[in-house]
Write a structure and sequence with these properties.
This protein is an alpha+beta fold and about 800 residues long. Among the domains are: about 230-400, Isoleucyl-tRNA Synthetase, domain 2, CATH 3.90.740.10; about 605-725, Isoleucyl-tRNA Synthetase, Domain 1 (Orthogonal Bundle), CATH 1.10.730; about 730-790, Ubiquitin-like (UB roll), CATH 3.10.20.590. Helix content is about 35%, strand content about 20%. β21 (about 460-465) and β22 form a beta hairpin. α17 crosses α18 (about 585-595) and α18 (about 585-595) crosses α19 (about 605-630). It binds one RNA strand of 87 nucleotides through α6, β11, α9, β15 and α10.
Length: about 800
RNA sequence: GCCGAAGUGGCGGAACUGGCAGACGCGCCGGACUCAAAAUCCGGUGGCCUUCGGGCCGUGUGGGUUCGAUUCCCACCUUCGGCACCA
């Protein structure tokens, strides 16, 4: 009598066994001892515990990683697969303010709940490596690393305009400004001048465009390329006629230099404030205060003549200098030479203000009106003009980037404290290493009030200067949470180390991450910053590799009602009720069966029914086969089907990174066994089905493995297809006439091409379409088809 | 505007290297079991026509290459995503 399939019972049972056995904990290699060569670091982006539940997007992400983990493990790889928490950050702080609880209390309760949910889904995670960004044992090293960046001149303080969200009362990074509004709260972003810490990401701009040894999606690379925005051009010096000062411009079109008819400064350009007319200064004050997005939205260009002129270094012409807000201070040099004939924006400006237009490139892309450069093709003209300028010290070829340095200061409470002290005498002084971490103090009032919450806490702020012992103040800001996530994957590898952030030997063993799975929305933030971190650490000798992630995969969004599931949209569907009703195995299978993992997919709980039906059928069938089928028997059709399924499933998961088709393949196998449960090879086929479904549904697979008389499927070798069994001795020959299928029948695989054609011509149906005539041409595809052309 | 991805049954999707379009699942229809229903099991299920043998059409649209195109090429349409006054 087959017992009932009770998912919750068997799932709890096996989860306990795996925990007791430490089945998915993996030791680090030890220096001096032999190490396994085939190691695999399976990583999915760490969750952000600002809500008390994981959602179906997490279930998709981590189940994919889990399938990889199981298949790799059972294929003989050493697999490390850790988990942790991106515990600092604004949403948690805002939620805490709303609920009147300390962010730590909220976050830790959320982490406990999410961890319990993860364990209930049975994911093969090495929980002994768990880290959370808000724990002092972690952020001690975040601070230590921050100081290293400063020491290596890759992190610095600068005053400059920053995006300020008046609602969240903090600076926000460029990537969180969407159409001039704060991505998180929607408030209109203002520009403010503040002194901030910046990571010098631009120092690696060129290198970030390359992916040595990396297998990254083209799409992601394109997004990063776009973000970095490398453009080759020239810097050219223009002398101001009235003052004798030189002002540099950046241009990608030095070939059009003779067509420059005016000159434009950004409103924020320092020369405006020092030398321009009062009217121009007045314009600059208004224009400069407005966000770029707002300026760009205007249809008409605005600007004011400054009263000054610039001398074109190539022909001595005097160009009026205008101040206009279509020129941006933080790209290039904040000044341009305007060539209205060949630049759309300059053209619009010239039209608005009646400025002359001089074409200098003809239809054949050759230079005209350009003095001695006339007749040169534009590309050659670029080089020739830059060379001429260079000879006179008036210009040089340069490369410019859209990428800005990464602003990392946040005027908020719930983040990693910045380990620096401001002393009037000594300046900005690092907190001595033996005093790290600078503990984030518990404070009563962390609501933003225009100045950082920590700044209001005198006990925290007032310290002795570590250098002179005089009175000094802590830095009141905290770090952007992308700093935490830029190195957490290194800490996982050595999370209990209290001597260093990590040991280089073990990190060099496991990294780069073999497979990183996460959302494509992190392409310009987290992924770029992590690459920057690793390149810098490699330069300092902390790690022996230069890229953190060898392979990257982006899962699609799980949508509900057509919109992407996320906390901010409020359409989060958690797994709890589904796991209660159907079990973790069903939920895991269901989310992966939804469709290709790299495409968006609409969450439809109705699909669960089909999966549950499949699991019950598998359950019944295995019990039936275990009770009735012979221990081992002659190979038959099921043997071949089982081997074909092994080949398909393995290839789909390991090579194609495709997770929904293997489920179909195992379903097919189970359907075939169901049709012949008494076959001599039914037991082998059933064992294969159970073994292949284990990465998806490890609990039921483990239970059924026991029913079939075996033990410890989680560490059983991954099945290998027997190539001898894959060879078919017959195949279905397709016969076409003029490319249309007219007949199909089984033939012996050993038949020659001539014999195949002969057999094809015997077919009544084919003859009917040949009309008794001779085919003009006959195409034979071995082991597939014969096509007659008439 | 620039860059990228994608368009296949009622639905999610499969078809990996140019060779049987629609695997697998959902839904729906019919049948078995049942007093009845649920569950389960069996069968059917792209459209149109049919003398029930089969025939024709069909992978966003229009062309092309090929014996043969969902797959390759050209043009276009639609949807989604990224970037965008970046000189």
């Amino acid at each position: 009598m087959t017992p009932r399939y009770e998912p919750n019972e068997i799932e709890q049972k096996w989860q306990r066994v795996w925990e007791d056995e430490r089945a998915f904990n993996v030791p680090n290699p030890v220096a001096g001892e032999p190490t396994a060569e085939n190691h695999w670091y399976q990583l999915e982006m760490l969750p952000y515990p600002s809500a008390p539940s994981i959602h179906m997007g997490h279930v998709l992400n981590y189940t994919m990683g889990d399938v990889q983990t199981h298949v790799r493990r059972r294929s003989g790889w050493h697999v490390v697969r850790p988990m942790g928490w991106d515990a600092f950050g604004l949403p948690a702080e805002n939620a805490a303010i709303r609920e009147g609880r300390h962010p730590r209390v909220t976050i830790e309760a959320n982490i406990d709940r999410m961890r319990a949910q993860m364990k209930r889904l049975g994911w093969a995670i090495d929980w002994e490596r768990e880290v959370a960004a808000h724990q002092p044992s972690f952020y001690r090293w975040t601070q230590w690393l921050f100081q290293q960046f400063v020491a290596h001149d890759l992190c610095y303080r600068k005053e400059g305009p920053v995006n300020w969200c008046p609602n969240d009362q903090t600076v926000i990074a460029n990537e969180y400004v969407v159409d001039g509004h704060c991505e998180r709260c929607g408030a209109e972003v203002e520009l403010r001048n503040m002194t901030q810490w910046f990571m010098r990401t631009t120092a690696y701009a060129d290198e970030l465009l390359e992916y040595p040894g990396g297998d990254w999606p083209e799409k992601t690379k394109a997004i990063q390329r776009n973000w970095i925005g490398r453009s080759e051009g020239a810097e050219i010096l223009f002398e101001v006629a009235e003052t004798g000062d030189d002002i540099a411009v950046f241009t990608t079109r030095p070939d059009t230099l003779h067509g420059a008819t005016f000159f434009v400064l950004a409103p924020e350009h320092p020369f405006v404030d020092s030398h321009a007319s009062d009217e121009a200064k007045e314009y600059a004050r208004h224009a400069g205060a407005r966000p770029v997005e707002e300026r760009a939205a205007e249809t008409e260009k605005t600007g004011v003549f400054s009263g000054l002129h610039a001398i074109n270094p190539v022909n001595g012409e005097k160009l009026p200098i205008w101040v206009a807000d279509y020129v941006l201070m933080d790209y290039g040099t904040g000044a341009i030479m305007a060539v209205p004939a060949h630049d759309e924006r300059d053209g619009q400006f010239a039209e608005t203000f009646g400025l002359p237009v001089v074409p200098v490139i003809d239809e054949d892309a050759k230079l005209v009106n350009s003095g001695r450069f006339d007749g040169l093709p534009a590309e050659e003209g670029k080089r020739a003009i830059v060379a001429a300028l260079e000879a006179e010290g008036r210009g040089k070829a340069t490369v410019n980037y859209r990428l800005r340095d990464w602003s990392v200061s946040r005027q908020r409470y719930w983040g990693c404290p910045i380990p620096f002290i401001h002393c009037e005498k000594c300046g900005v002084v690092p907190v001595p290493e033996d005093q790290l971490p600078v503990i984030l103090p518990d404070i009563e009032d962390y609501a933003p009030k225009g100045k950082p919450p920590l700044a209001q806490n005198e006990e925290y702020m007032n310290v002795e200067c570590p250098q002179c012992g005089g009175p000094a103040q802590r830095d009141p800001d905290t770090m952007d949470t992308f700093v935490d996530s830029s190195w957490y994957f290194l800490r996982y590898i050595d999370s209990h180390n209290d001597e260093a952030p990590f040991d280089r030997f073990v990190v060099d063993y496991w990294l780069p991450v073999s497979q990183y799975i996460g959302g494509i929305d992190h392409s310009t933030g987290h992924l770029l910053y992590s690459r920057f971190f690793v390149k810098a650490m490699n330069d300092w000798g902390m790690v022996g590799f230069r890229e953190p992630f060898a392979r990257v995969f982006h899962q699609g969004w799980v949508t509900l009602g057509g919109t992407k599931m996320s906390k901010t949209k409020g359409n989060v569907e958690g797994p709890d009720e589904l796991v209660d009703r159907y079990g973790a195995d069903a939920v895991r299978l269901c989310i992966l069966f939804l469709g290709p993992a790299d495409q968006d997919m609409e969450w439809t709980p109705s699909g669960v029914e089909g999966i549950v039906r499949f699991l019950r059928r598998l359950w019944r069938l295995v019990h039936e086969v275990a009770a009735g089928a012979p221990e081992s028997g002659a190979a038959g059709p099921l043997t071949r089907k089982a081997n074909e399924t092994i080949a398909r499933v393995t290839d789909d998961i390991l090579r194609r990174f495709q997770f929904h088709t293997p489920i179909s393949a195992v379903m097919e196998l189970v359907n075939e066994i169901s049709a012949a449960p008494d076959a001599p090879d039914a037991r082998f086929a059933a064992e294969t089905a159970v073994s292949l479904i284990q990465p998806y549904a490890p609990h039921i697979a483990e239970e059924l493995w026991g029913v079939l008389g075996h033990e410890r499927l989680w560490e059983a070798p991954w099945p290998e297809a027997d190539s001898a069994q894959l060879v078919r001795d017959t195949f279905e020959l397709v016969v076409q006439v003029n490319g249309k299928v007219r007949d199909r029948f089984e033939v012996d695989a050993s038949l020659s091409e001539d014999e195949l054609v002969a057999r094809a011509r015997e077919s009544e149906r084919v003859r009917a379409h040949l009309d008794g005539g001779e085919p003009r041409k006959t195409v034979v595809v071995p082991r597939r088809l014969v096509n007659f052309v008439v």
